């Protein structure tokens, strides 16, 4: 390698310059970049100098980046990288720990402490343990893998060793996130293996009587129920207390995908919309969403660590270690693992419960400002009452001769905001999801002004 440690000061100076250039441009740059072509450079036989590399990044890469780290990127459910987590993430690379086996670094204990603090933050019992993942999709995959191990155990089969061939299981859900369906496919159960339970009227939440009837009629030896907190479009929450009672009655595994919806617990507490989530067998959380840590960072929690471990552990002499606790490589997909708990630990320390709650509250209030304007506007219809951070709306066809997708294209082309489509009760709609710590009321007003010009 031609770069030495002596070059580190140069690298740090360049990093700080690139950081300021990017951050100072966040308000002004197009939220969705229009410069998407590959840089016109070819793979060099001999590496270029650091100075040339740094300049290339500044002139060719930075201009093509989106402002997804800023206050008006409202597509999908996108968090930003808060300043403390950004600093901690740089240190993660500097430290470059492999949080795999434990026994040689404090990093393992710190990941355990961070998981325990997340349980404390969300008022979940400390009987939950788990692991950091690359995101909610990977956490949902671990959920399916652990639930299928549970199903196998009920039938005297070790799925990790023998596979699913002889396991008989039925899966139920009302409005699973696409990543949940992807996970069913990845785990070999099949994307079409789940049976839909009807939703409550005008909502995406699960109808309890329909679930009870389905489980009662089910002949499969094992059952898995997948619930949502909250659904990605309607932000609807299932009734976890009622669902968990039914699951207990039928010995069914209950997984709750709470990727971003768990953060609502900081506002209304454990008797609010997430009431009863603590009875789940497993829960998915996503820190790169509403905790605003950098990608990629999700969490899988379960009260059945031995089942997760049985699913992920492989004995190999060269991997034998001296660790006392559970080795994280045996609780997830990757053997070698980034120290991705660290930016979360730093965020929890740096903001505290109060600071994190304030961010969530601010986003909910900002979404309410947008929803209230849309509700009064002649050009747009608010299609669902906004109760969290996602606003659903569509053009009023009598006043605006544009489809939802045409509106999105125009708005995104303005470079002032980035929105993504959705579907509400069979009709195409526009979704605005506000999850970034740096969103200001001025950002919301700016977007409202642009909506008004359509
Ligand atoms: C409810 C829910 N589950 C899972 C995911 C997938 O998350 P990720 O992209 O972090 O894998 C999302 C993303 O929006 C989500 O909203």
Note the gap between the termini. 54 Å
Q: Give the helix level as a range of percent.
A: 25-40%
Seen as an oligomer or otherwise, the chain set is: single chain
Beta fraction:
5-15%
Low-confidence stretches: none
- The secondary structure category is alpha/beta
Pick out its properties.
12% strand; Aspartate Aminotransferase, domain 1; binds pyridoxal-5'-phosphate; globular; 2 domains; alpha/beta; 40% helix; 4-stranded antiparallel beta sheet; 454 residues; 7-stranded mixed beta sheet; Aspartate Aminotransferase, domain 2; 11 strands
Description of the structure:
One of its GO terms (molecular function) is transaminase activity. Belongs to the group II decarboxylase family. Its cofactor is pyridoxal 5'-phosphate. There is one protein chain. The chain is α/β, with parallel strands linked by helices and 454 residues long. It folds into two domains: 97-338, Type I PLP-dependent aspartate aminotransferase-like (Major domain) (Aspartate Aminotransferase, domain 2), CATH 3.40.640.10; 353-453, Alpha-Beta Complex (Aspartate Aminotransferase, domain 1), CATH 3.90.1150. Helix content is 40%, strand content 12%. It has 14 helices and eleven strands. It has helices at residues 8-25, 50-61, 83-95, 107-121, 136-154, 159-162, 178-186, 208-217, 240-249, 265-268, 305-312, 341-376, 404-413, 441-453; strands at 129-133, 169-173, 194-196, 222-228, 253-257, 282-286, 298-302, 380-382, 390-395, 420-424, 427-433. It has a seven-stranded mixed sheet, sandwiched between helices. A four-stranded antiparallel sheet has the order 8-9-11-10. A hairpin with a 7-residue loop joins strand 8 (380-382) and strand 9 (390-395). The longest helix is centred in the C-terminal third of the chain and has 36 residues, at 341-376. The mean pLDDT is 96. Residues 76-77, 135-137, 177, 179, 232, 257, 259-260, 286, 298 line the site of pyridoxal-5'-phosphate.
